[in-house]
Amino acid sequence: MKQHTLLMPLDMHLHLRDGLMLENIGVLSAYSFSGALIMPNLVPPVRSKEELLAYKQRILNAVGMEAADEEEFDDIGEFSDNGGFEPYMTLFYQNYDKEFLTDVAEELTAIKLYPAGITTNSEGGVKNFDLEEMRPTLEAMAELEIPLCVHGETDGFVMDREAEFMNIYDALASNFPNLKIIMEHITTKEAVDMLDKHPNLYATITVHHLLISLDDVAGGMLKPHLFCKPIAKRPEDRDALLKIALDAHPKVMFGSDSAPHPKDKKESCGCAAGVFTAPIALQLLCVIFDKHGKLDNLQAFVSDNAQSIYGICPEFKEVTLIQEEFTVPESYKGVVPMYAGETIGWSIEDVD
Ligand code: DOR
Ligand code: ZN
């Protein structure tokens, strides 16, 4: 039976939520990933050092990692016994001053920018992209080597939102050439083309956007569990994403954008955006890369590229997958995953 081993898999875009949801789903990522970049769109968003450290602690508690001493709270080194899952923390973008950023830089991996109101809990995001207003923050970030992760959608027609945002990426990348900018969860060939236009632009790609197009979401019966932002686009967009993922383009990393919502918020009139893939992401990636004869490139896509882009050094974890059928559960503690009840061709055999 075919086997494939991945070392230190990383999920560079993950929503872990808070409270009971975090307690219920956090362990699913911690089981098979060495670390994940944790999105800050809580209510209220993570915007201060205290909130960031407290949230990191709640994540470590939820995934069963050793808690840090209260007194040692502002020393991230005290989290070192993390049992093999590192939450790489982010702050919610707003204009921050340099003093604040200097003080918090050690504790975070990136800052995540949301256009205001574009997706779940993003109301406090950026209203207009006035680069001169943003300059002090972005220059300080560049100086302190804090990458900027961006949800790149305008408020235009839903299928065009990402393509329309390319002007903003262009302006950001050329005005701040020393700032690392990560185009999050890209879904279009326009974004793929953009990657090589600026040396400081990078991207994450989800597993669902490698598999589905808008047809799968809304072409037949409406599939709420495939509804997310940015919405899946045309087959040719998916093919462009597939090409750079399968080639493990060095500026591209895996980021699941796994975004759990309670079942009643998905199967409702007014479906929340988000696809929940955390527990099946590595299995699906094996299915895709194996199908295209590119399993050898999966290690770079799911870990090595992220390590070099972010300069991170995750703790050792070895995940062995086998080509054996796995039936996706109908729900994980009330959260319905992508492909619930369906059978996929690869499963996790062992994690060391
Ligand atoms: O579909 C999405 N869900 N896209 C996002 O950008 C946010 C996420 C969420 O937090 O639910
Ligand atoms: Zn997200």
Order of helices and strands: EEHEHEHEHEHEHEHHHEHHHEEEE
How many β strands by DSSP? 13
Category from helices, strands and their pairing? alpha/beta
Radius of gyration: 19 Å
Distance between the termini: 20 Å
Structure characterization notes:
This protein is α/β, with parallel strands linked by helices and 352 residues long. Strands 2-3-4-5-6-7-8-9 form an eight-stranded parallel beta sheet. A three-stranded antiparallel beta sheet has the order 1-10-13. Strands 11-12 form a two-stranded antiparallel sheet. Helix 1 packs across helix 2 and helix 5 runs parallel beside helix 6. 47% of the residues are buried. About 5% of the residues have low confidence. It binds (4S)-2,6-dioxohexahydropyrimidine-4-carboxylic acid and zinc ion. The site of (4S)-2,6-dioxohexahydropyrimidine-4-carboxylic acid (DOR) has 10 residues, from loops.
Brief summary of the model shown:
The protein is α/β, with parallel strands linked by helices.
What topology emerges from the helices and strands here?
Elements: E1 3-7, E2 10-14, H1 19-32, E3 35-38, H2 49-62, E4 86-92, H3 98-104, E5 110-113, H4 131-143, E6 148-150, H5 161-175, E7 181-183, H6 189-195, E8 201-205, H7 208-211, H8 214-218, H9 235-246, E9 252-254, H10 263-266, H11 281-291, H12 298-310, E10 318-322, E11 326-327, E12 343-344, E13 347-351
Parallel strand pairs: 2-3, 3-4, 4-5, 5-6, 6-7, 7-8, 8-9
Antiparallel strand pairs: 1-10, 10-13, 11-12
Bound molecules: (4S)-2,6-dioxohexahydropyrimidine-4-carboxylic acid and zinc ion.
